[in-house]
Write a structure and sequence with these properties.
Shape of chain A: globular
Helix content of chain A: 40-55%
Helix content of chain B: 55-70%
Radius of gyration of chain A: 21 Å
Oligomer: heterodimer
Largest sheet of chain A: none
Number of helices of chain B: 5
Number of strands of chain A: 0
Structural class of chain A: mainly alpha
Radius of gyration of chain B: 18 Å
Number of strands of chain B: 4
Strand order of the largest sheet of chain B: 1-2
Strand content of chain B: 5-15%
Order of helices and strands of chain A: HHHHHHHHH
Strand content of chain A: under 5%
Chain lengths: 206, 139
């Protein structure tokens, strides 16, 4: 048995921590925003500025959640007759502004609204856009969009979305039970409430 | 006994009254369009049949896709349809969905959007009269 001098023990410990840390950096999946529980909450309270930490706490937002969307009656009535309720934190302000200004061709469909309704909806979307959301998910989305000159009009075209869904082939999105990548709800049961935790994912087989 | 009688009376009155209220609303919407025909338009004597033809008409839109009213609303307006995004659309026929064609603002919004999507133009008041005549005739 090899005898270690007492002074070597901390050095070996330090070395092993460093090696393990590096391996984790290299091979670890970038899914830390899917970790539940205390570690996530701890992180979000640390990363939040003092002015926003109250908001996070009041919404009891876990690291993986975008938090309560607070959909208005108008939003539910106008936006969800055709599609699921998209959480306002899924896109930045510039995207919502662009989208609401081009409702004549809303993903190939005329979704024009009266001017007053349109501005009220935009106000709601902007009030909860990614910039206003302290979740790591929203912050990572914003980080991935840095340098983009054109704001994305759909979440599913962002590099962040693609990175998070890199293991899902296009054929899967086309399944009857899914329809398209825009139908978050098909696989994320709590999508409308802002819950996109990977552990809750259920992919329809057909 | 008296309570039963009162409840029965309320039930009978409600059954008698509701179709009247419902008819008034749909009629009001229909009359709105009848009163808004342009100078060149005349009411169609076969409005119901014309409306059905319009509902079933297939069009190739500017993107080259085949589209019609029934693409989303289904061949039978009494049944549920499906939006392009995959969301269920409640039946269009008032016989299956009493709320339909009772709110002129809503009706106008959807005619404006859907006519542009399908026919690449807004529908005329005459076409709207025909359409509503057909949809309300489906029992």
């Amino acid at each position: 048995m090899i005898r270690l001098k007492q002074t070597h023990v901390p050095l070996i410990l330090l070395l092993s921590i460093l090696t393990f840390g590096a391996a984790n950096l290299l091979y670890g999946d970038d899914d830390d925003d899917d970790n539940d529980g205390k570690s996530g909450e701890h992180h979000s309270s640390q990363s939040s500025s003092p002015s926003t930490s109250k908001k996070v706490a009041s919404k009891s937002q876990s690291a993986t959640d975008l938090g309560a969307p607070g959909y208005t009656t108008l939003y539910k009535e106008e936006c969800t007759s055709c599609h699921m309720a998209y959480h306002p934190a899924l896109l930045p302000t510039a995207s919502w502004t662009k989208m609401m200004a081009s409702l004549k061709d809303h993903f190939g469909v005329d979704a024009t609204l009266e001017a007053k309704t349109q501005s009220e909806l935009l106000k709601f979307l902007v009030s909860g856009s990614a910039e206003k959301n302290r979740s790591r998910r929203a912050q990572k989305l914003l980080k991935s969009l840095k340098g983009n000159t054109v704001p994305p009009v759909s979440y599913s075209t962002t590099s962040y979305f693609k990175q998070k869904h890199h293991e899902i082939s296009t054929g899967v999105f086309k399944r009857k039970g899914i329809n398209s990548a825009a139908n978050c709800l098909a696989c994320h049961p709590r999508a409308e409430e802002g819950g996109y935790n990977e552990h809750e994912v259920k992919i329809p087989k057909g | 006994m008296t309570i039963k009688f009162v409840l029965k009376s309320i039930g009978i009155l409600w059954m008698l009254g509701s179709p009247l209220v419902f008819a008034q609303n749909v009629d009001a919407v229909l009359n709105h369009y009848k009163n808004n025909l342009t100078q060149n338009e005349q009411l169609d004597p076969n409005a119901t049949q014309e409306g059905k033809t319009l509902y079933l008409r297939d069009v190739i839109n500017k993107k080259g896709e085949k589209i019609s009213c029934h693409t989303c609303h289904g061949l039978d307006p009494k049944t549920q349809g499906k939006s392009k995004a995959g969301k269920i659309i409640e039946p269009l026929a008032p016989s299956a969905n009493a709320q339909r064609f009772t709110d002129i603002k809503k009706v106008e919004k959807w005619f404006r959007r859907n006519c542009r999507d399908v026919f690449d133009r807004e529908c005329t008041a005459k076409e709207k009269v025909n359409f509503i005549s057909y949809i309300t005739s489906v029992k």
